[in-house]
Amino acid sequence: MADFATACWWHSNAPQAHFTQNLVCSLPTETGRITLSGRRLVVTEAGASRNTELPEGAVLKAYQEHFGIVLDRVPNVLPVPRREAPAATGRGER
Description:
With 94 residues, the chain is of the alpha+beta class.
């Protein structure tokens, strides 16, 4: 797991990382996956993806219909507090 520490830190802390810039909600389905990232709904079935940019009013409905999450407003991305990156380790260390 130590080999992945730096990459995990980057994805959860770097200002350029997708997960610090967008809210992402994703679930596996029987035939693929459904993901809501910001206002973009991605439905993947049998390896093929359909992307739909939702109008502002449809985002709350998508959270409820696809994920069972009832919200009274569209959530906002919070600023990520700065944290130090983990110390680099050599490959194979445990």
